[in-house]
Amino acid sequence: PYYVDMDQNLFLQASLHSSDQNLTVFVDTCVASPNSSDFRALVYELTKSGCASDPTYTPFPSPRHDVARFGFNAFSFVNRFPSVFLRCELVVCSYQDYSSRCYQGCVSRFKRSADS
Questions:
Q1: Where is the ZP domain (predicted)?
Q2: Confidence class of residue 14 from pLDDT cuts 50, 70 and 90?
């Protein structure tokens, strides 16, 4: 566990450990939950499809392409839960494959209206 005060800035880093130097990593989706085994019932989205959902979520530049860095302000779930757990989905792509998901950034999907 990592103990922080409310609204304290948290900084996280995800590193890809591979002998293949031609890979890069991208943070696609991160959600928080008060339950470490249930990330569906009560969740808070920090980022989804590479788009920040939380106004304090910030991606940071990294010195290496196999490292992703980001941060956000600490929060709680209505003071009823003593802990917050994170689950992040990362995408691994070929380095400098600019058509890959890693280089697309925020991908917002729009719903189309159905005609009668």
A1: 1-109
A2: very high
Fold held by 9-97: Immunoglobulin-like (2.60.40)
Q: pLDDT digits over 54-88, tens only?
A: 999 999 999 999 999 999 999 988 778 888 999 99
DSSP 25-73: EEEEEEEEESSTT-SSSS-EEEEETTEE-STT-EEE--SSTTEEEEEEE
